[in-house]
Structure formats: structure tokens, C-alpha cells
Amino acid sequence: MKNIGLNIEQPTTDCDDHHCPFHGQISIRGKLIQAKLIKNKARRTAVVRIEFFHYVKKYMRYEKRRRNIIAHISPCLNVNDNDSVTIGECRPLSKNVSFVVLGRTS
Known about the structure:
Radius of gyration: 15 Å
């Protein structure tokens, strides 16, 4: 198990996934985001939702917006739907996947 250089709890189980940040060859660089895991149905892939506020200059108010991000889940991580998770940016793993789930946040 390699040290990814972040203050994130490492998983207890091992895996042989090449895209695992703890056991594989993926390095985390760029953004670290805390979000809510929405769907976990695809194989080793999850949909994560980020909610944020956007300022509307015309009305001098904030509106709530959200964005869905597709992230890779390693089999050594035990996360379920509606969990609060931390995701980290990595190199593009596929056409739409450029983030990896790093673990559950408390």
C-alpha cells in the first residue's frame, strides 16, 4: 500500500485495481472535493453530486446549483449510495472519468 500524500484514512482490504490510488498506479493531483454519492450501479463507477452557490449579479442574490461528476471507485473502498465521500482529481481514466473516490467523510 502506497502513501498518497493526503490526510485520508487508507482502506483495510487489498485490491488489484490499476486505477486504485492506494494500490494502483494513479496519482492524485488537482482538486479535492467533498460531495454526496448519488449512484453506485455501474461497474467500479459512481455518480457524485456537488452543490454550490452561484452569485446572480442582476438580482444581487445567490442561487443554488449542482453538478454531477463521474468518479472511479476501487473495490477496496466500502461506500454506498447517499454517503458523503471525498473525491480527488487524477489523469483522465476514460472519456468522462477524471476523478477517483478516496474514501468516506465523517
